[in-house]
Structures are given as structure tokens and as C-alpha cells.
Amino acid sequence: MFIPYNRIAEMLRLLAIFVFCTFIFYCIISYLNDAIRPAQPYKEPQGKAVKVMNDVPSLKKTYQEMKQRLFAFYWYGE
Fold this sequence. Notes:
Keywords: Membrane, Transmembrane, Transmembrane helix. The chain crosses the membrane at residues 12-32. Pfam families: DUF4227. It comes from Aneurinibacillus thermoaerophilus. This protein has two helices and no strands. It is elongated and about 80 Å long. The chain has helices at residues 5-36, 63-76. 59% of the residues lie in helices and 0% in strands. 0% of the residues are buried. By secondary structure, it is mainly α.
């Protein structure tokens, strides 16, 4: 029985190169993601910016409260 060892070695080499390139690409994408993402996305805005939404622990809101918050968002937001 003939076993093509050079063909198997070539496939393993190709697989190793693919895994290595995938890992390098993943590291580059992760680095760019960390560099672009803001450090604290939920902090208070500075300058003339206005924070419209407020963290409220209660999820039971009336229609009027939700309407008022939406109106404030459209009134002050862009």
C-alpha cells in the first residue's frame, strides 16, 4: 500500500499556516476593536451634550412617562 507522506506533510503545513494566519488576523482585529471602543461608554457627557436616558431600575412605566422621555430625547437629541 502506497501512502503519500509528502502530500500529508504538505496538507499539515497548509493547515498550520492557515491556523497561524487566522490567529494573527484575530489578534489584529481584537487590538483595533480595543483601540476604537471608548473606555467608558456610559459616563456622563461633557460640554454642551445632554444625557437624555437615565438608568431606572423599575421596568414598570406608564405610557405618559415613556412618551415624555421620548419627547425629551427628540427635543434635545439630534
